[in-house]
Amino acid sequence: MKKRSLLIIDDDQHFLMALGDHFGMSGMEIYKATTGKEGLQICKKKLMDVVILDQKLPDVDGDSICKDILSYNDKSKIIFCTAYPSFESAERALNAGAYWYVSKPVDLRELTFAIKKSLRELELEKGLEDLSYAREKEFEELELIGSSGLKRELDRLIELAAGTDSPVLITGETGTGKTYVARLIHKKSGRKGPFVTINCAALPENLIEEELFGHKKGAFTGAVKDKRGLFEVADEGTLLLDEIGDMPLLLQSKLLSVIDEKKIRRLGDVVYRPTGARIIAATNVDIEGRAAANAFRKDLYYRLNVLRIHLPSLRERKEDIPEVADYFLKEMSKGKPFRIPEEELKGLMDYSWEGNLRELRNVIERAMIISDGLVVRPSRILNISARSKEVSLPSVAPPEPVGQTIKLKDLEKRYILNVLHANGGNVSKTARDLGLSLSTLKRRLNSYKAQTG
Fold it and tell me: Which class does domain 408-452 fall in?
């Protein structure tokens, strides 16, 4: 691990030696200077993490060279040190760019705390820089793959969405890339703030509300400090409300208010705060049907549906499958020349891809892992998947004798299993046909297996 550097600028030789020995023993790389000029020469040659700077130096006042030190490394943390403490001197030092202010005679514990806090701040800043760089690289590489007419129309809608601040509603089956498209809209929009996402189906109502709106200290037990919600975090950026169709009705009303008024109120607070977050909503359910059945607010649906982008399933744009498969292959190959034979690509185009892009990526990744060499054959995985579905299906009970009473739960079980068999064991399609969530259907199937096991 890289050693942190500490420069001590002070004309007191005993002070220099004592601090140098103490912080040198803690593993820091120590540099010393007795004049401002000498200190600046060191900063010019070596980037300093922390600088302990005396106010009264033989050639200059310490606060007069703070800006020069920061010109060599704007991340340096300057701890200003003076034997003549006053509000005015502290104000001058902090205005000049000092990070901390201590008075002489120095309390070693206070100085140690200041240095530790400085180093911690540097670590946090570095982490944020790395995260920002990673996000920038991620967004640089975002691009839709394919050349079909459907893909070109999708490109047109994305450009249209990027040029406006109005809400966008993205619909499509699971795995079609709704989050990816939302990220692409954010990237092309040039918005300054971050891209933030929340899954409305993953959290209970009270937690979703807190995540979105934040809370004021003391709003409830455990609220020991103020917390910003995602509407504030995403200010001047984009907030993706994934699985919007599963948002509780009470929160739908509050979301409608945010869209209309562009302001939010934290839980337990009386102050309204403006938000510049651009809202994108995504869902894989029939949201029009839910609105018609009063399971989703019609007024919110109309507000979100200003610009609608429907993502076609992979089955609807089969001509794009070879390009998409090649993209996934290159993405995961780590520079190795893996390839998919032509006959294998034709097989991929004939497959149903109920899980869409997510399933295709998974199949290619698994096929790469089990490949003997650089030739990847996804058909092996598809055959394995088909066989595993066949053997894992729970058996359907034989018909009950005529006139015998059937329990409702047994009738439900028989119906679910019949639909599952009619769909060839495809659990995702069965869930859609039955109007159940995928997790609910899987729980019921597991319970049926336990009963027969």
Answer: mainly alpha
> Which of 19-33, 85-99, 141-155 is predicted with the least confidence, judged by mean pLDDT?
141-155
* Tens-place pLDDT, residues 340-350: 999 999 999 98
Tokens of 264: 């939010």
Instruction: Tell me the torsion sign for CA atoms 32, 33, 39, 41.
Output: negative
d(Cα 176, Cα 199) in Å, to the nearest integer? 16
Neighbours of 52 (CB within 10 A): 26
The class that CATH gives domain 150-310 is alpha beta
Cα(208)–Cα(244) distance, integer angstroms: 12
CATH number of 5-128: 3.40.50.2300
On the 0-12 / 13-18 / 19+ scale of CB atoms within 10 A, 370 is exposed
5-128 with 150-310: one CATH topology? yes
Reference 193, options 231, 138, 140, 144; nearest CA is: 231
Q: Where are the domains of the chain?
A: 5-128, 150-310, 315-392, 408-452
Taking the model in full, what pTM does it have? 0.57
* Residue 8 DSSP one-character state: E
CA–CA distance, 244 with 110 (Å, rounded to integer): 51
Alpha-carbon span 53 to 56, nearest angstrom = 9
The bridge status of strand 263-265 relative to strand 272-274 is antiparallel
Residue 397's pLDDT band, with cuts at 50, 70 and 90, is very low
Q: Does the structural domain 315-392 have CATH classification 3.30.70.1350?
A: no
pLDDT at 405: 52
Asked whether 198 and 242 are in contact (CB, 8 A), the reply is: yes
